[in-house]
Amino acid sequence: MSPLYRNLALAVVALGAVAWGAARLGLFDPPPPPLVPSPQALARGRAVFTARCRHCHDDIPLERRVLGWSATRAYDAIGRLPELSPVMPAFHGTVEERRDLALFLAALGAPADDVP
Ligand code: HEC
């Protein structure tokens, strides 16, 4: 291989590694939408949870696992469920469903005396 092609190949590999690292760090992820709780959003989030998570999480209660989580933290976690536990499938819902589910998880993890 000529030195030019070798250097080009090295540059492509290096760029690929940088892009992979940036993707791992979530630098390409769009920012979360505003995470503002409301009774409607929580009800929708509960419905998403029932449809997509409850068949496992009836047996693996989440209250203690998400204790003290902000909605932002929950939103982030929903984006990488297989990383948190390899048995969990990735979440393929819409951004709105992910937002409402994050609000629901944050409410689930709120200490009891925070609930109005
Ligand atoms: C196939 C079964 C399964 C499904 C479906 C599933 N989970 Fe899980 N989940 C697990 C298991 C197993 C764990 C790990 C429990 C442990 O740490 O002991 C877990 C852990 C978690 C945790 C805690 C992670 C941490 O950092 O401790 C969160 C949050 C969570 N799941 C959210 C969800 C949400 C939201 C959904 C629905 C979109 C979902 N899970 C669907 C099996 C599942």
Keywords summarizing the entry:
2 domains, about 120 residues, binds heme C
Strand content: under 5%
Tally of DSSP helical segments: 6
Number of strands: 0
- Into which percent range does the helicity of residues fall? 55-70%
Q: The biggest beta sheet, please? A: none
Q: Spell the H/E element sequence.
A: HHHHHH
Number of domains: 2
Rg over CA atoms, rounded to whole Å, is: 19 Å
Distance between the termini: 70 Å
- For this entry, what is the oligomeric state of its chains? single chain
Regions with little confidence, pLDDT below 50 for 5+ residues = none
Bound small molecules, by name, code or SMILES, are: heme C
Which structural category fits the helices and strands? mainly alpha
Shape, principal axes of CA atoms: elongated
Mean pLDDT: 91
Would you kindly provide a written description of the structure presented here, covering whatever features stand out?
The termini are far apart. The chain folds into two domains: 1-30; 32-114, no CATH class. The longest helix has 22 residues, at 3-24. The chain is elongated, with a radius of gyration of 19 Å. The protein has 116 residues and is mainly alpha-helical. Helix content is 57%, strand content 0%. It has six helices and no strands. The mean pLDDT is 91. It has helices spanning 3-24, 39-52, 54-57, 71-78, 81-84, 95-108. Residues 52-53, 56-57, 60, 62, 65-66, 77-78, 81, 84-85, 87-89, 91, 101 line the site of heme C (HEC).
